[in-house]
Amino acid sequence: MEPLKTVEGRAYPLGVKNVDTDMIIPAKWLKTISRVGMGKGAFEAMREVSGNVFDDPEYQGSPVLIAGDNFGCGSSREHAAWALNDMGIKVVIAPSFSDIFSGNAFKNGILTVVLPQEAVDRLMEVAKTDPIHVDLETQTVTTPFQDRFRFELDPFRKACLLGGLDEIGLTLERTGGIDRFEQRRDAEQPWIKPVLA
Amino acid sequence: MTQARTLYEKIWDAHVVETREDGTCLLYIDRHLVHEVTSPQAFEGLRMAGRKVRRPDLTLAVPDHNLPTTARVDGEGHRLPIKDPEGAQQLAALEKNAPEFGIKYIGATDKEQGIVHVVGPEQGFTLPGTTLVCGDSHTAAHGALGALAFGIGTSEVEHVLATQTLQLKPSKTMEIRVEGQLGPGVTPKDVILHVIGVIGTAGGTGHVIEYRGNVFEEMSVEGRLTVSNMSIEGGARAGLFAPDEKTFAYVKGRPMAPKGADWEAAVAYWKTLKTDEGATFDRSVVIDAAGIVPTVTWGTSPEDVVPITGTVPAPESFADATKRAAAEKALEYMGLSAGQRMQDIEVQHIFIGSCTNSRIEDLRAAAAVVKGHKVDPRIRQALIVPGSGLVKLQAEAEGLDKIFLDAGFEWREPGCSMCLGMNPDKVPAGERCASTSNRNFMGRQGPGSRTHLVSPAMAAAAAITGHLTDIRTMAGEMA
Questions:
Q1: Residue B55 to residue B212: CA distance in whole angstroms
Q2: Least CA distance to B124: which residue of chain A?
Q3: Is the domain of B363 the same as that of B394?
């Protein structure tokens, strides 16, 4: 995973609430066995509407997306995060995110920034004309107009994003503990193993 | 004395391998269900890193999402190919990956094949008190049996395959208590649609919901599966029901469930799995059962619910500005206008199926309404898609297939089907479907499709009348 430290650039001012994973990447794009190439299908239905932010030359290639409440609700498809990655989006800013989506985003090196609605409204305004700056180290979003919004971030996620760390590799270092847990459990609750013919 | 704990906290605590300073836990996973759509990249990741599956014996693979629901073998029993090359490639990947990594695989033509969330409980793979995950958000369904079950993304699928654990922080707890007497025609589907209407699609975000109160206690295990299944539609990653005698009776004797002395030990443990007296929830929602009526959705979010006796709401009726804008968009997409009576809305498609409503009780409820009637000629397609091959065989043994076929329904092979538009079963653009599935998102059942979420009985009623229908007006038709 690529380390993520700062992101500077324009932002898609989407602002819509309840952007579900079917909107981010419709089901027909899920029939792949690869993690790349899904940017083409991202926000497909929204892009059919003329004047949409994704096809506006003003915002082409923006690394930031600003959305409304409950971004990424719906299915667990990680394809939603892969599609955003494929579009070059590194940061999504919204008042709230679905739990599964924010986990998937993080595991693909995408930062989800939770800010109050007023801050999101302000960034939406700025995004129409100017770039915004996201700094992971200081956990802030800033604009050229002296706006400065601090966001909360889980310390573990922060360390993983900053270092580009592989979570599976980190867990495999804990194998001894997992072994001990299994031994104790198999002794105490032998019924827990499924009867697989 | 130990501190009073909720059911969720008990299951969570029993699975913590290690806790980090920041509160993140390494949580042990007892059961992993794998399907064809969210697993190929995970297996590929393992292969690239030279990693093995840690516990293939705790893993079960079943294809469901993109399988066509038409015949899978020809007259001579030969397997028919999947026409869509990408779907075929995903299925082929699972067929190759499962044996390569030593995972038990239920194949597309096996009689046990079905939707993962139907197969897990049916096979006794899902057990109370276990942690169960799958790369699918409707994994929440398994909470009906008292399993802590939740959907995960593909990176987490890979993580569980490699380590049999997940790195997680505990969720907040939420109790949804429905008390009192449900009215006639009100099914578990109506209850959960009503609940989502009350809490909203983000109402449960960050929480695990425990369903409590007499209505849920009296509900059958299959009804509980319908309710818990849609926890994710209320934003909660998992739902839970305390296991009780109904749960034990449901699990007992299933192929993968414990037997003999193991069974006795398991039940003794499961009986301890209930929220302690005095335990507190971070959030509590109490709903009067008498206030729930047969419920339908009007918009493009599962929180867009209204009683079947109601009308399409006016966007101006929402105080919140973003909700108002969303409602305007939803009405435009759905081709509806404010004030229209829900019962006047004509539908062209009927879908009875999905991990929410494709079990035998669902098919019985639909058949009870359909019996002796014909599908309205204005309906273009009416599908019955059993949740598994075993549900299909059971229904056929009861003669339900004949009732549906006589009425003009199609009787299909098990799979996710028209729930999500990634197999040949789709609702065409601009057409409307009364669907027993779980999501009415824009384009969910196919590009431009319009979905109204309903119970199996209400879907069956709409098939007969050609429009959304209050099941209570079809007196004597209710199961």
A1: 34
A2: A194
A3: yes
Q: Where are the alpha helices (DSSP H) in B204-320?
A: 214-218, 221-229, 245-251, 260-270
CA distance A46 to A63: 18
Does the distance separating the beta carbons of B262 and A17 come in below 8 Å?
Answer: no
| Residue ranges per structural domain of chain A | 6-165
% residues pLDDT > 70 (chain B): 99
Residues B226 and B210 in one domain: yes
Q: How close is the nearest chain B Cα to the Cα of A135, in Å? A: 22
Kindly state whether A109 is in contact with chain B, defined as any CB-CB distance less than 8 angstroms.
no
Summarize pLDDT for B204-251 with one digit per residue, the tens: 999 999 999 999 999 999 999 999 999 999 999 999 999 999 999 999
- Secondary structure of chain A: what % helix, strand, coil (to 5)? 40, 15, 45
Please report the pLDDT score of residue B1 as a whole number: 53
Domain finish residue from B168, B192, B220: B168
CA pair distance B27, A42, nearest whole angstrom: 33
CATH number of A6-165: 3.20.19.10
Provide the number of structural domains found in chain B. Answer: 3
Last residue of a domain, one of B153, B168, B183: B168
Q: Do B120 and B11 share a structural domain?
A: yes
If you average pLDDT over residues B126-134, what whole number do you get?
A: 98
